[in-house]
Amino acid sequence: MISRLCFCLLLSAFCFSSEAQDRTTPVTPLPLGDVLLSLPSSHMPPARTWEVKFTHRFNQSLDQGSFSNRIHSLYGLDSNADVGIGLSYAARTDLQFSLYRSNALDDIEIGAKHLLFQQAAAIPFTAALRAGGDWRTEGDLDDRTSAFAQAIVSRQFGRRVEVTAIPTYVTNAGRAVSGSASVALFKNSFNVPIGIAVMLQESLSVVGEVTPRNRDLPADMHGYFGWSVGLKRVIGGHYFELLVTNSNATHADQYVTSTYMGSPLRSGNLHLGFNIERRFGR
Q1: Torsion angle of alpha carbons 9, 11, 15, 18, nearest 10°?
Q2: Separation between Cα atoms, residue 209 and residue 245, nearest integer Å
Q3: For residues 43-66, b (16+ Cβ closer than 10 Å) or e, as one string?
Q4: Distance of alpha carbon 236 from alpha carbon 276, whole angstroms
Q5: Which residues are within 8 A (CB) of 233 and not within 5 positions of it... i.e. 6 or more apart?
Q6: How far, in Å, CA of 253 to CA of 190, rounded?
Q7: pTM of the prediction?
Q8: Mind listing the pLDDT tens digit of every residue in the chain (282 residues)?
């Protein structure tokens, strides 16, 4: 009798443990990588994974100039561009370090992202924290350094849709140009960019980003909200993204202000861009 009771207790404990484990097993994530288009995602690469990233945002807008001029410049593909190169390393499955440099103000950004928990049956969303700083190395600048902190919260719906909110706080954000000098627009700035991804096929997704107009913008700086729409294709360890955006910002201290290089965003500005990411390691 006692042996049967012990057996039943062990069996029930095993079943309960399996059920609890099933409810905390993370859902299969969408193939988005650790960045949506310009905004960070809540996703993390496997431990001991390196990643090299290239970003390209063409400066000429698709609506700039006459029709013949646009044809001549291949709709901006012949124009100058804001170019960035980055390197990241996932030390653990929940911790990633990143280094990114852009030719926009020769900005160098150092960051770290920590995954708090992943969405599962018992957990309704994924959450991560990201923090770091920027050092703008171009000449004739004031306020060369800034710091940022971000919470990244995402919710996956089924197997095809994911929505992400990124509350972001930045010091010395944005740029205001006066003559040959440039200073920060804000000593402190806060905004909540939003991202959404819809998986069309197993390795192809459409991704959108929206950064609301910053509420702290001066009254005389009537700008538009920032947005980007692109296609993300995953091939092996590569992530390819083609996008259209009204903002070339790729750093937190730029996109949080809903301005770019001290100028308000415009609804009609349509810049082509692309990202290429390559992962190495496990």
Answers
A1: 110
A2: 9
A3: bbbeeebebebebbbbebbeebee
A4: 13
A5: 203, 204, 239, 240, 241
A6: 10
A7: 0.85
A8: 555 554 454 445 444 444 555 788 989 999 999 999 999 999 999 999 999 999 999 988 766 655 555 554 555 555 688 999 999 999 999 999 999 999 988 999 999 999 999 999 899 999 999 999 999 998 878 888 999 999 999 999 999 999 999 999 999 988 776 656 678 888 899 999 999 999 999 999 999 999 999 887 877 777 789 999 999 999 989 999 999 999 999 999 989 988 888 788 888 789 999 999 999 986
| Distance between CA atoms of residues 19 and 198, nearest Å | 30
β 271-281/49-58 pair status: antiparallel
| 217: its two tokens | 């913008």
**Burial call 114-141: b when 16+ CB within 10 Å, e when fewer:** ebeebbbeeeebbbbebbbbbebeeeeb
Contact in structure between 109 and 132 (CB atoms under 8 Å): yes
Q: What number of other Cβ atoms are within 10 A of residue 282's Cβ?
A: 10
The four Cα atoms 66, 72, 73, 75 give a dihedral, to 10 degrees, of 60
Q: Which residues lie across from 55 on neighbouring strands?
A: 84, 275
